[in-house]
């Protein structure tokens, strides 16, 4: 349901598990978190900082803790949905209403709020070496304007483009991704700019 403008709209247009979403919403609204929509989904913040997100998927509803790796997780309910990519984010999944433990959800939310107030963050190593995949390297070598435009991006944004190509498994996918990013690079648009708050 990308594009929901309100949490009510997000819940109403969910194809399933609206009951779980409504209960989770009520629980999170009972805390000191502020409710908003980011990336078309419910997001709960404190002092403008993302703390918790909600998402409905085909098989479950998930709570995302933005700094979830810092939570004690004594009940062992959290897991990393993308081990190779995500350092801080952790999610807790619910398939039925019976999976919800209101007291525990509030406890986890309050711990996340407390951590945010203390400005606790997972340290992310950002100075990884930039490895440009052959497909992108060849395109840059063949087009001087593209090469100069690419060099204007920060190392982090260059790495996003490089990883986007490198992570594709098939040659055809690598080529279609390359075709997608060339106009973005030429127009000084970062791969993930639309998700960033400027």
TrEMBL record:
Residues 17-113 form the YdhG-like domain. This is Uncharacterized conserved protein YdeI, YjbR/CyaY-like superfamily, DUF1801 family. It comes from the Bacteria. InterPro entries: YdeI_bac, YdhG-like. It comes from Draconibacterium orientale.
